[in-house]
């Protein structure tokens, strides 16, 4: 069932999960949640090259999780909160599943207590 869901998953959802799969990119998302940052500012916080940080930012952008604004010669990276919507929607399916299962468990326990 889950493998069918993955096959049916929209490309935007797949790209968002791909972007969040890497710990460095998750760190970048957390940093951008606090403030907008340039590539140079992000590179200062990681032990990697500017090119490597740029590749991570490209994956995050492809996943719809960040936007990039050019101001003069600088590129400002900004968290795009709506980019998380496909991921949250995907997880909401499982919320419904667990709610149903937990309700059945509760009912079974209540029947045994009577």
TrEMBL record:
Q: What are this entry's molecular-function GO terms? A: DNA-binding transcription factor activity
| Name of the protein this chain belongs to | HTH-type transcriptional regulator
SUPFAM superfamilies recorded: Winged helix' DNA-binding domain (SSF46785)
Question: Taxonomically, which superkingdom?
Answer: Bacteria
Read off the PROSITE patterns from this record: HTH_ARSR_2 (PS50987)
Q: Which residues form the HTH arsR-type domain?
A: 5-99
Enumerate the InterPro entries for this protein: ArsR-like_HTH, HTH_ArsR_DNA-bd_dom, WH-like_DNA-bd_sf, WH_DNA-bd_sf
């Amino acid at each position: 069932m889950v493998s069918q869901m993955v096959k049916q998953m929209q490309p935007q959802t797949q790209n968002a999960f791909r972007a969040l799969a890497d710990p460095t990119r998750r760190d970048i998302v957390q940093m951008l949640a606090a403030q907008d940052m340039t590539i140079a500012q992000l590179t200062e916080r990681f032990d990697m090259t500017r090119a490597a940080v740029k590749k991570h930012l490209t994956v995050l952008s492809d996943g719809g999780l960040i936007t990039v604004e050019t101001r003069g010669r600088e590129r400002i990276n900004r968290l795009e909160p709506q980019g998380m919507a496909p991921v949250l929607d995907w997880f909401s399916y499982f919320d419904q599943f667990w709610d149903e299962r937990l309700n059945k468990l509760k009912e079974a326990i209540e029947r045994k207590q009577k």
